[in-house]
Amino acid sequence: MVQTLALSVGLIVLVLGVIALLAHYTFWLPWKPRHWPRVLMYHDVGAGAQDGMNIHPLHLADQLAVLQHKQYRFVTISGLVQGLHDNSDHVVALTFDDGFAGLYQHVLPLLKHYDAFATIYLAPRIAGITMLDNTQILAMQNTGLVEFGAHTMDHVNLLNIGDEEAIAQIRNSKDAVEQMTNAQCRSFAYPFGRYASRHVKMVREAGFESAVTTKKRIVATPNLYEIPRLSMNGAANALQFHIQFGTGKYRV
Ligand SMILES: [Zn+2]
Q: How far is the CA of 214 from the centre of ligand 1 (A)?
């Protein structure tokens, strides 16, 4: 009787263990073809807590080294959009939302080292974070390695404001980014990944050529105004990164 009980408990523990393993390492999901573009979404880069908003610079460096080793070519979002139908190439677009000041210190040297391109989405009046200053933005722009996109003026949830205000938030952020960078602002990121079809139209009519979302998928040919991205988590280990990059899915 005691033996049967011990066996049952052991079996339950084993089953739970397998379920946990399958949830955290989603290698069993279909692997997407290598020539389908990968778009990675990061936020801050620094030594703080490693989570969905922050990744350690050494950890990011490891990921870039892996991608370089896999012979992926780093592109900006505009570069990705231009080359979308070129299946001969394997491309990955690194994107960083909100324009955290840490990107100047930690990301720019990595881009130079790996000869990599990145896209940074700025919300010029964002509150609660230390954003890149104008000198840093211009210096990054002038390297030719960084494309700056817009992310509304105040980092607003477009679903929570009226249409007129949404249009102003979208258009004014494009103008502000163009003034800060002395360059055309071609791409937009929906704050919090929240938007409706009317906002897609507003973004297109404002003159953006593309927009990125937080839909966590890898697709062959993304809709230019609803480009999905993989949300990168600083706490993901190398195996989880490998699986996420291949399948689009993971859980830390
Ligand atoms: Zn954001």
A: 10
Confidence of residue 252 (pLDDT cuts 50, 70, 90): low
192 Cα: distance to centroid of ligand 1 (angstroms): 6
> pLDDT tens digits, residue range 170-219?
999 999 999 999 999 999 999 999 999 999 999 999 999 999 999 999 99
| CA 251–ligand 1 middle distance (angstroms) | 21
Domains of the chain: 31-247 (3.20.20.370)
CA 228 – ligand 1 centroid, Å: 15
pTM over 0.70: yes
Cα 73 to ligand 1 centroid, rounded to whole Å: 25
Phi, psi of 224 (to 5 degrees): -60, -25
